Structures are given as structure tokens and as C-alpha cells.
Amino acid sequence: MNSTIEKVILLNGGKELQEQTSKALSAFEGKRSEVIPMLQAVQNEIGYLPEEAIREIADLIGMPESKVYGTATFYSQFYFSPRGERTVKVCLGTACHVRGGMLVMEALEREMGIKSGETTEDFKFSLERVNCVGSCALAPVVMVDDDVFGRVESKEAKEVLKQSDPEV
Amino acid sequence: MTQKFDRIEKEAREAWEKSENSNTPHIYIGCATCGNATGAQSVVKTIKNKLDEKNIDAVVKEVGCIGMCFAEVLVDVIKPGHPRISYHGVTPETAEEIVESYLVNDDHRPDLALGYFGEGGPDDVEHIESGDVFKNQRRVILKNCGIIDPENINEYIVHGGYRGLAEIIGRKQEEIIDILKDSGLRGRGGAGFPTGRKWESCLRPQADQKYVICNADEGDPGAFMDRSVLEGDPHSVIEGMIIAGYAIGSSKGYFYVRAEYPLAIKRLRKAIEQAKEKNLLGDNILGSDFSFDLEIFQGAGAFVCGESTALVMSIEGNRGWPKPLPRPRTTEEGLWGKPTLLNNVKTFSVVPQILSNGADWFKDIGTEGSPGTAVFALTGKIKRSGLIEVPMGIELGKIIREIGGGILDDKKFKAVQTGGPSGGCLPEDKLDLAVDFDTLVKAGSMMGSGGMVVIDESTCMVDVARYFLDFTFEESCGQCVPCRQGTQQMLEVLNDICEGRGREGDIEHLLELGDSIIKGSICGLGQTAPNPVLSTVQYFRDEYEAHIKDKACPALVCKNLIIFQIDEEKCSACGRCRKACPVEAISGEKKVPHKIDQSKCTKCGICFSECPERFSAVERLTGKEKLAAVSGKEG
Amino acid sequence: MLKLNINGLEIEVEKGTTVLEAAEKAGIYIPTLCYHPDLPTFGGCRVCMVDADSKIVTACRAPVTDGMVVKTDTEDVRKLRLTNVELILASHNQDCQSCSRNNSCKLQEVSAFVGINPERMKRIRRSVEEVPVDVSNPFFHRDHTKCILCGICIRTCEEINGVEAIDFAFRGFHTRVSVLGDKPLKDSKCESCGECLVRCPTGSLFLAEPEFPEREVESVCTYCGVGCGIKLGVRGEKVVKVTGNKDNTVNRGDLCVKGRFGFDFINHPDRLTTPLVKKNGKFEETSWDEALDFIADKMSDIKAKHGADALAAISSARCTTEENYLFQKLMRSMGTNNIDHCARL
Lengths: 168, 635, 345
Hints:
Chain A has 168 residues and is of the alpha+beta class. In chain A, 47% of the residues lie in helices and 11% in strands.
């Protein structure tokens, strides 16, 4: 079994998840203004926001769990299911769009066999669109985690993935 | 207060001079996000290694973005007694060469140099400040970006920083606000509300607590001005906020920064620490009764949080829903129900200079109605992409032709988009317009926070409108019907038009929807969301009509309206397109001209870019008749 | 008092009155969807927009100012309202005939008022987001395709019942009323009081087994001593629905899950309709007279043999306060204080 999947199952098993949540939330006082920082801390630790963690944040702050969920789902930063080891971000800011970013996105979707916003079955990659990473002179831009690929052409989609993971 | 500051300044100057005047070369590397994206970090590493290897004593500084993104990675070298020479497009390989040639052998390598700053540079290298890029600019907000080390407070102080703060502490709050009112400064976030008046309306209410918030949740998908300022000159924004705190009587400030800006956040944290160490921030600033603290709040990704009430909701842990009218102003009842002053990054960062140089100095720049400068992220189909700062009132065309160097690949200019998703597209005959808040609005666009995207003939205007509507559709908060449902409806109509299902009457439908969304929406996001559509209909209606009536995309962009075809005469059967095609839609063999199977083709365009320019055999066709002809030939 | 002019009618209202309330006072209809008189305003549906002093405002939120001139039917207002309703309909389930709120739907009412024009509707691109109906709750279900995101259910849960089981989740066009984790309602803190159901302006929240009564009978809920006023909806000889009686001062129309949904016992075949007396180890049906005589005899017996304190009585929370009073009085008159009540459990 793939190690990532194993890890995810282990996480969903509960115990480790609970420990990670407690660790992420240990520095907070439970103030109302800490809702978003707490969600960010949990996601930094776990990679997404499991339901149990949202419930714990709700308890700590004394806010209804439905409202914490409502807040979390409002912001595009938050994920509610496990993500791939690496995230491929296709910039579709205005400059990248007019320079053909969408074609690059389509090529990556084709190569990875998933749509934007999804994660590959082996949990290696997640694919998403982002708005302006501030490297407009390099448009169109693709980022794999923090590695930036500039002036990407759609035919180079495979190359980008290969460079990020030799097994691809 | 100034006495205490004089001492701080003296210390800073001594520390700085010690390093500057030392007989060692200084190397500045542009290490903002844009520079790092281009490989600045590996250049830094290479240079440091090379210096070690050659045993050269030199100061290496990671600075912010000077704005010449087209020339990244930028490495500037100052050898004692020489002006600052700027090298562009530096790679680890050329970095080694520069160290070797210039520092070791005294060859300044004109072949690698972009130019020099200051006086007395070598003849074979261009003087950057008098070149096209810089001569039309007026750097006020960006004056330190790319020049100083943003992680060293002393450099900011030596360049005049915190002087403005030191001078106002002890003065009457009204006096400070009067200077701002007199300067005519208008908020740089987009709408251009007079800053002095905003501060005044926040000073008036009595409250046990007031808040100052810096909106650094830069949301325009084609812009990065605020990020560059935070990365390149964080202290200027911090100083502006402290001054605001003093002027309105607040002791607590928040930076609301996009979480996608990790470097900006890191630099801000460091800057806040340094300012605290020097007693410029924190308790009893410069020994006075005034205390002010700053906290960073990371935005979690919602464009609507640029709206003040939504931003406040978000800090309070809620969905970022703007509050519908009638409601009290944020300056009266904002965060936690307390008076709250909210300004953009650039607004805060220019305040210290206005206070230390005076209102008249500021009024001398720009126009009467819009004094000062405008910062733009100049991008798109332009030769010199980058971050620029120009005096208000400059001719739009001058920015594009001179600073930007014209259109990429010498194609034909079509439009310039400003104001991002709230703005509009202006055609060629508007290029003589003056860039200021009011003129752009009159022409159907707006200043916005500073995105300026240049569009050429190969860009479809309907597709551009659809792009922005897709953005606002995704970012609409969902609270009110006109914006939630209206942007979705507009997007559906635009999708139909771009995909060949446009109907007679769709343009009128779009215009009517636009009117209703503008008038009916709760907040600025909805009230401006239709602008990209309205302005493209206004100036490029023929493109809409071509899509609807002839099912043609004149710019050859909209996939459903074009086909790719190989011109048999031109095809040399090299096989490159056939091998590159991801769906095996191209057939042919050696010496047999290739052919595209239209039923398999996904129109990804790879064959088009793969076909060597000397053949240019792959062509795109559009329009009912042409498409029919091709399918007829096939059938 | 503030004076204002609505569509030419001069009226006076108290300070703090909204334009909508003032119009109601003047007998002028302003369409609304997200407004509910029991709840704080929301201001999201934008169909109550009117012209107040030449500015477009939402009538539900805008306070009346002295001398205000309100026009509720200008061309601009008509157009804005019409477009808004058209846009709501664009993503609304169109199956009105089979909807339990057919003829009592607020969206139908407002659509009729603004005048939906089939020719104009042809231009509209329809897209209803497919979300399965949540049938997890045994009493009422949620059909997202009929939800207009007015937020009345959410505000009800917060303001009326204080449970806050639901909130808006996601964003923009994908906004949805949801519980934690976008789960079925039964997996949430929802107490099934059904207050949201009664306030839902459309058929998005609907009874699991909707039956329309032929007539209504006023009554008092028998579940506890609060004594909420109810209206029993009767069809044939069966009670098919319970609604809270708004005119009742005890509950002003509000009900809990038991009072609103727990009425199936009324017509249940297992329900006791005559007293039972155990004879030879088996319960047998008997008359009230015989049963009461039996009790009186036994109690007198016990009291004579073992004293009054050998007697104890338990009454029911389902009785009225008066009945419980009489019951304890009866027991005390028999000489014992051994009286208890199931509601203290």
C-alpha cells in the first residue's frame, strides 16, 4: 500500500489526528478573533480540516460548530479532505490568463487525470488554480509547492510533473 | 520626541555608514517573490560561494523588488568609488562570471549589465534613471523598494524613515489630519476616498478602544503592488499605521495580509520586532504617552474581504459577509463595534513622507484632483512587465509605449485593463487619457488598486470579460441575490457566447443584468462586478457580435469557435506536431503532409506552438463558413 | 412621530420604524422574501427595494426619516425587483405542482406580484444545482433546489430556539444551508423543533408526510405543563397536522418537537380509550364508573388498614396545572402528602 494512503487511514483512525489537533491549538486562548488563525494552524499541521478539529475549535471558542464550519467553508484556503503530498498550482491571474494559462491547466488536467481542485488517487498531487502569484513577467506560471515554473507551455505539462516527482 | 529619535537616527546612520563606507563591494540581489520565482535564491547562494572561494570580502544584501520584473534576476553591484551597476537576467552561471569579471578583474561586463544608477557610470552602459523605464516614473511609494535591505530597520531610518513619526508625536491630532486633508491624498485601495476625511471621521467618535487596520489582502488577480511594498519596504507601512494610530487615538493595529504572501508576512514580522526594539512601536513610543501595538492577521482567501465590513467580519471569526446598508460606517463602528480606520498598504506607506515633506510637496506631484503617484503592476502582453510608479495624470499610452516598451512580439495593441475585476478595458483611442481616479472612471474603467494588464490582438475581449466574471462569480460572497445569481447568470451567458451558443439579444440581456447587479448589490464587489463586461461591450461590441452572429472568434481564442488545420502546401511533414499531439489526432508520415482528425482534436493548441515558425503550417480558422468548409472537406 | 409620504399617502409613524413597516401600516404591499417579522433583518434578497428620497433602499432595513418620500413602484424599482426574482427563479426547482407549498409559497406570491414574463424568461439560462434531498430527519426534509438562501431557517434556529444547528456554508453561488461537515440534518445538533419549517418561505423545508387538513380545531398541547396553544389540523376523522396557535399568549405559535410532530398517538391503534382493570391477572376493558369505584374501594381499604401515608399518587405532566392542583388537593384531603409528578424526572 502506498505510504500516503496508509498515513491518511492512520490519521482518520483518530488518535494521531487528535494529538495533532491539540498540538496545533495549544498556543491559543480561545478568543473569537482566533477562529481563522486556529483553522490555519490545524490545516498547517494536518494538511486539511477534519471534522473533529472543527468541533474542537468550536468548543474552545464557545461558538456553534455549524458557524465554525460556515466560516471555514467560506474561505478558499481551507480544505476538508486529505490533500496530495504536493500541490500543483496553476496561476490564472489576469496576466497568466491572457498568456494562455488555461491551456496549461487543461494540459495538466489531462496529464494528471484529475480536474482542478482534485487530488490524484495515490495522494501524490493535488491540482488547483490560484490567482496571481506575483510573477506576472514569467506568465504563465505553474507552482509545485514552492517551486516556480515560468513561461510554461501546455506541451511542457508532463515535464513540470516529472521534475517534481521522478516517478511520474 | 525628536531628540530621542535623533539619537536613534544617529545610531542607525553610524551603523549604516560603517557598512556602506567600508572599503568592500556591496551586492544587492532582488529577492522579492518575483525574484525568488526566477531563481534569485540560487544566485544568492552561488555569489556567496564564489566570494568565499575567491576570498573576497563583500556585503551581500537581499533586497525587495525594484519593479523591473522583466529583467529578473537582478543583481546590483556597487564597488567602492563606482556607481551602482545593475545586471539583469542573472543565472548562477552569469553570477559567477560577474563576480569573477567585475570584482576580481575590474571588467564591468557591459554585455551582462542593464545599466547603472547614479552618476559617473561607464560609457558603454546605459544610465537607468534617464532610460525609458525610469525617466517617466516618479518613485515615492516605491522609493526604497529594491534599494534598501527590508530586513534592516537602520537602512529605512537612514533613508528618512520614522522621521515623520518622530515629528508628529506631541502634535495635536487635528493638525496631522489637516496636513493629510490639505495634501489631497486619496486612498490607494481603488475607490480613492479622501484619506484625511476618513481619518477625521475616525478621530471624532469617543471610544475606549479604536483600531487601525491595514488592508493587505490584495485580491486583484493580476496585481502584486501591495506585496512588493510589504516585501521591499515594510517599515514605511508600519510607520504609516503608527501615525494613523496616533492621529485617531488608537492603540491597536492589524495587518490583514493574504496568507499566500509568506515572504511579506515574514518581513513584516521582522520589521515589527525591529521597530519595537527601537521603541518606535509598542509601549510609550519614543518616551511619549502614546502606545501602539501591531498584530498580523492572515486572510484566508476571499476577495470580498477587501471590503471593509467583510474584512472586519473575517477578523471577528465569521464568514466575510459585507454588512448591508443602512449601517454605521466602519470608522464609527468597525472591529468589535469600535471605530476602525482601514486603509490600503500604499496609502499608509505614503503618509510618513507627506508628513515629513509637507502637503505642498505631495500636491506638486500628480493632478489637482488626484495628487501624488500611482503604482501599477504592468503585465500582460507587454515587453517590460513590472512594477511601476508614475505621477497621476500621466498619459496612459506613455506607460505602455515608453515604460512598458510596447507590445510583446510587436503585435498590435488592443486594450488595457485596469481596476481588475472591478475595472474595465480601454481601447487604443483612449490611450491619450490621463491616468487618475476620475478620468478612468469616466471612461468606463477605474484606477483600482493598481493592476494594469495589456491586451494585444491575439486576446479575445469576450474571453477577457468571461475571465473576470468567472472570478467574481467564484468570489461573490453569496449573500445578496443580484451578485450571487447575477454574476452566475452573466457568466452562463458569456460561456454560451464563447462556446458558440450565443443568441440574438444576449448583449442586451448582459447590459440589463449589469445594470441590475450594479444597482441592487450590497457591496462594492457586486456593484462593480459587471464593469469588465460593460466596458468590453462598449468598446468591443463587434467582437461580441462576431461570436453571436457568425460564431466566430476574431482573436482565434475561443475553442469551440475555432479549428486547427494543417496547410498541406506548407507542411513539410517533419512530424513534430504528430508526436506532440496528446490525443493522437494528427496522422501522416514522412514526406506525407499531416492531417488533423477534427473528431479527435481537443484544440489544445500544442500542434500550433510546435510547428516550426519557418513552416507555420498549422493554422486556426474561425467563422461559420470556414468551419463548414473544413468539415465539408472531411465529410 | 415622523411623517412620511408613501405613494402619495401621508402617514405618521414612530421613530425607528422601517419603510417596510410604515408601508404595511399604510396598507401598501411591498414584496419580501428574506424578511420575517419574528427575526432580525437580513437584507439579502433585495426584492423589497423601493425608492426613498430618490435613492434605492431595502425597505426592510431602511429607517423612516422625517419628511421621507417613498415610491414603491417606479420604473427602476420594478425593473430591479423583476430581475431579482427572475434570477432567483433561474436556479429554482420548477416543479411547483408537486410541491407541498404550492399556493402558499412566498416565491410564487412575489413572482406573481412582479409579473414574470415568459418572453423575458426565455433569455434566462437556468441552472439548478443538483443536491440530493436531505431525508434524514423523520419529521421534515430539506430540498436544496427549492432553497432561496433567505437565511430565515438559520436566523430562526439562532433567535427562536437558540440551538444554532445550521448556518450558511460555502460561498457565492455554491452557498448552502448546512450543518457541520455538510452532513445530514440528523447528525447535527438539530432538535427537530420545526420552527424553521414553519418559517420557510418556499417548499425547501417540507413535512416528511405532508397532509392538508380540512379543518382546524383549537386545543392545548398535552405533552407538558407549559400548555402551548395548538391547532389540530383534521382530515376526515384523523389529526394530520399540528400548528402552533399564534394567538395563544403562552407560546405565541412556537412549539417543540413533541408538540409539533408527536401527534401520531392520537389516532394510534394501541392508544387506550377506556380504563383497564386487572382481573385474574389479565387487563380487561371496563367503564370509568367501575374503574373509579374500584380505585376508591382499594384506597379506602389501604387507608383503613395501613394509615393514610401508605397511599401515594403520581400525577402527569400532561395534565393542566389546574388538574394537578385538584389532584394534590384530593390526596391531601385523604391525609397524605405522598404526591409526585412525572415532570420532575
